[in-house]
């Protein structure tokens, strides 16, 4: 596995990906910027790759600055031992999580978790007051509490099921020529320190198309919206809310895209043009 040069700031040239910074990257930057007031770390990324949060936290604390973790995609992390550590267990000072993403609360259910004394709770509340609504939503609070309770009572089994589902999907995708799912090989020196197995990240370059083209095709022809995409890949998140039906929809759509099938629509008898290498957006053609 190629090692990441120390001054490339997380760039993975082979995959055209940027990984979260490593503790030594952070130490170097904090030395270069002694006036820095804190460190903001985004982990896990949209591609499921995660930082060594504990290592970065310890470096920040050597410099006596707080580590703030944007863990928007990590609401599920504390709820199962088979998942990467969440920021609060890894000594971050402040963790911000969108419970509506990988958790089960309604939209706008983002929360702070705070520990230690590097971030003042009063200052945090004042800043939050500047940006937040003065009209708290009972729905938001009720779904947050419902999610918390569901995870305490059933989190382990629900996430066990989701993890098995994700593994099954990854294995099925690995069997489709032209599609390469990302897996734990991302966790290596110089690459990522953790990988969230609930992210199904698929390199589509073997089909001769970009992730943008694959996403457009899946949306137009299969009504499947991918969670993320770039020039090389697409990604989908599996959560406790997925079931056999959604698993099948995703796999059927990927199989259809791989084959470059030209389905005839029953209603109109029109042929749907698929994306070929270097083609633009797929369109329905009479
Ligand atoms: C890394 C990251 N941080 C923050 C956000 C915004 O989160 P919220 O929906 O809680 O405003 C997103 C949204 O996709 C995100 O991906």
Automatic annotation (TrEMBL):
Cofactor dependency: pyridoxal 5'-phosphate
Highest taxon of source: Bacteria
Gly residues composition-biased segments: 277-286
Pfam families, sorted: OKR_DC_1 (PF01276)
Keywords, in A-Z order: Pyridoxal phosphate
Keyword hit for Calcium: no
InterPro entries: Orn/Lys/Arg_deCO2ase_major_dom, Orn_Lys_Arg_decarboxylase-I, PyrdxlP-dep_Trfase, PyrdxlP-dep_Trfase_major
Domain Orn/Lys/Arg decarboxylases family 1 pyridoxal-P attachment site: from-to ranges: 22-187
Region spans: Disordered: 1-28, 266-286
Descriptive protein name: Orn/Lys/Arg decarboxylases family 1 pyridoxal-P attachment site domain-containing protein
Organism: Streptomyces viridiviolaceus
